[in-house]
Amino acid sequence: MLYRALKNIIHIGLYCYHSRILVYGLENIPKNKPVLFLPNHQNALIDVLLVAVNCNRKPYFLARSDIFGGRVLNVLFEYVRMIPIYRMRDGRNTLSKNDAVFDSCARVLSKGEAIVMFPEGNHNLKRRVRPLSKGFTRVLFRALEQSPELDIQVVPVGLNYTCAENFPSSAAVYYGKPIAIQDLYDKEDLPNSVVNIKEAVAFRLKTLTTHISPEVQYNEIASYLETQKVSFLDPEKTNRLIREGFPLTAPKVEKTRAHTNENNIFKSVFLFLNFPVILFWKLLIRPRVPETEFIGTFRFAWSFVGFMLYFSLLFVLFLFTANLWWALGTVFFLWMFNVGYVKFLSN
């Protein structure tokens, strides 16, 4: 019950934070088989939360080990089914711990449960699928070594954002058709099995999210797509435009964003009504965000906590200076305006 309550609270928070969240392909997720979800990774913890609240399973999550450490956090992470994975940057001597991690994942899959793992191995805001690491194949192979008949299904997940570092942004989650690992796994030829599985997953991911392939022309193509006003929530159309419509000699175009007077008025009202929360974010939290990819995560976390504190203070203030109805009405009006601004007035 506590897990479900926490999931619902985060679900509501995500939907209040984003202008839109679109979810496609839930019918592709097997219900009674072990599943390894493999999403692309752009937006740090937001990626994790979007999959967690929308996948209709109760998955475990493989997460970078450096976020673990404190006793309280470790208890919380264990409760929400997070498992640390160790990388070279964590120290070569830590890599040996992954053997126990793979055994743990194998036991999870053997019970018919689900795991979320990011096959790119890192996050980046660029709209492209980066080369996949072979770490996720080691999880699969360990599970099949222990349970050779296990019918593991890999579900590629495409995560798409209009602009992940901006507020408000919109998101679209695409669950692809499952890949039966038994069809690609040959215990007598593990190197080729790794290649075949990685190629199959990468191919699916490149259809489920925007994939700007030519790295040397990334900025030009990204600018071109913005001038065409494409919807980055529709990767099929965006990728088709990249393949068929991008002129190789297209001039560089500076990013511009048009705002109507009406948009500016609503934004000014939003900033005025919520200035304590926004000021705290801009002066104290935003400067301490370690990487651009973490902006969305930190902003969402602060919005989640900051607005609860702000609403509580307003409620107490009006309760003592006016009455209960004024207190309830003020908080309700401000919450409704904020949600309306994010959903309808900010675009």
TrEMBL record:
The chain crosses the membrane at residues 265-285, 297-318, 324-342. Keywords: Acyltransferase, Membrane, Transferase, Transmembrane, Transmembrane helix. The keyword Transmembrane applies. The keyword Thylakoid does not apply. SMART domains: PlsC. InterPro entries: GPAT/DAPAT (IPR052744), Plipid/glycerol_acylTrfase (IPR002123). Its EC number is 2.3.1.-. This is Lysophospholipid acyltransferase family protein. It comes from the Bacteria. Residues 35-162 form the Phospholipid/glycerol acyltransferase domain. GO terms for molecular function: acyltransferase activity. SUPFAM superfamilies: Glycerol-3-phosphate (1)-acyltransferase (SSF69593).
